[in-house]
Amino acid sequence: MKNKALHKTAPDTHILTIVGLMVLALILMAILQPGNYFTLKNAKSMIFQFPEYGILAFGMMVCMIAGGIDLSLVGIMNFTGVLAAMIVTKMTEGGEGMAISAILVAIVTALVVGGACGAFNGFIIGYFNIPAMLVTLCGLQLYTGLAYGITGGPAINGMCDAFKNIANGTVAGIPYVLFIYIIVVAVVAFVMRSTVFGNEIYFLGSNAKASRYSGINTLRVTIMTHMFSGILGGVSGILITSHLNSAKSSNGSTYTLLTLLIVVLGGIHPDGGKGRVTGVALATILLQMIANAFGLLHMDDNAKTFVNGCLLVAALLLDVYLDKRAAKKKAA
């Protein structure tokens, strides 16, 4: 049940591809916009933007490695963000004296509710044996609807300065969100590489039937996997609400497709059982580099969408090629 073999082959090729694309992007921008792209201000701007959807991508990653998918993450993010915003605004109505307590309560609530939403998804998937795509797509509508029902449509605004600083503040010129992102990456990497739970996720994704016969409680693993994903959705809910100083049901509406692109580009196999945290982290940064470059070049959003689509198709074709090459080597 060791996952070492599952970490090799395709993910390594994907990582090399991503690094090559990063170098290509840097070379192009060195030619086209060296004075604007290679500045501390621009680097800081990119850092402020990618953690909220980068963390969502790790939630998508763990579910895909387990052989499923989580399309409800944006709904969980907005639902938990709305709850956090309500708590912060209510507890700081009389001033910011309760700001720290309000933020702590909001963070705990977002993580607990996010985990509960994910666990609910996992239970429906595992107990009733319903495809994860259908369950989590319904979950997206459910949690988005709950967020909309709480707000009634308009956004919740006016959070205290301390809450806004979570995603917009800096220490020694370095955005806080970078440290949060690094901590999340470290935790996810530890869980996936160094825990029994992580090994069970890989094994479940590589062969669900064999994992059941080997004694793994697949229902428990499915619930825990989606609960883990939901907790990461709660983290993103805090970050996006803090970043925008606004909570509503429609925030990050493009993040579902973006996270899917990140995980596939990062080497997570669509059928499950394969993938690395490193690949997803690098793919997140690559897409932020591309988006930032398009912004500096004043290119149309349709061009960015086209490039993202090309990258997704290329990543899928690379998976097909690597699978065929692995099959030939095995046959030989």
Automatic annotation (TrEMBL):
Source organism superkingdom: Bacteria
UniProt cross-references to Pfam families, sorted A to Z: BPD_transp_2
GO molecular function, one term: transmembrane transporter activity
Membrane topology: Multi-pass membrane protein
Transmembrane segments: 15-32, 53-77, 97-120, 132-151, 171-192, 219-240, 252-268, 280-299, 305-322
Localization (cell): Cell membrane
InterPro entries registered for this protein in UniProt: ABC_transp_permease
Cellular component annotations (GO), alphabetically ordered: plasma membrane
UniProt main location, coarse: membrane
Keyword terms of this UniProt record: Cell inner membrane, Cell membrane, Membrane, Transmembrane, Transmembrane helix, Transport
PANTHER family recorded: ABC TRANSPORTER PERMEASE PROTEIN YPHD-RELATED, ABC TRANSPORTER PERMEASE PROTEIN YPHD-RELATED-RELATED
Identification of the protein by name: ABC transporter permease
Organism of origin: Hominiventricola filiformis
